[in-house]
Amino acid sequence: MTRPDPEHVLSAALRAQAGGSPGTAPPPPPAPPRKRLPVVGVLLFALLVGLLAGAIAGALTLFPVV
User: Fold this and answer.
1) Distances (CA, A) of 49 to 17, 46, 52
2) What is the CA angle 6-12-14, rounded to 5?
3) I need a surface site. Which of 25, 45, 60, 66 has the fewest CB within 10 A?
4) pLDDT tops 80 at residue 1
């Protein structure tokens, strides 16, 4: 019986180590839920600020402060 070539033994061992064995590593934890941006709230706030600014500008135009 012939002895296996040391290079082949080493390459087989490295291939086995690199591949790992399935099931030994624990599954990764689930990703935390993503927080959504408050788009609707920001748009409503911008709308209210715009209406307020327009009302103030309109009031100053109609009733000028002397």
Assistant:
1) 63, 5, 5
2) 100
3) 66
4) no
